[in-house]
Amino acid sequence: MRTEGRIFNGVALFLYLTAAGYAWWTDFELGAVEWIGTIGLILSGTLLAMCGLYFGFVARRIEPRPEDRDADITEGAGEIGFFSPGSYWPFGLALAASVVGVGIVFWMWWLIAVGVIALLLATGGLLFEYYTGARRGLE
Known about the structure:
Blueprint: H1 2-30, H2 35-61, H3 89-105, H4 109-127
């Protein structure tokens, strides 16, 4: 986690420096600071800094992983986790999110409501997929 934190914080620092350079350059060229791009770069850097700080805090609380130290490839071998091989719920989530997006674009409140309800049902289906139904206890 320490490596990821350094990468995120390094890119955040780059974005902050880029935002300062962008503000200076637009002020020099246009006579006024172009605020939309400057604020976008600052917010992007802040988002990356938040992720980098989180990874840094987590890295202090856990023991170093093989990726964080100079380790052999075999030390990272083993089971990573359980991934659902044949679930249709991600497709339902994407479809429901698309319905919500179309409802927002055309500002149809009824379509937004239908999409949000479908999104909640698909989220519940994905969450409880291995606790109910035919796949119960397969994990």
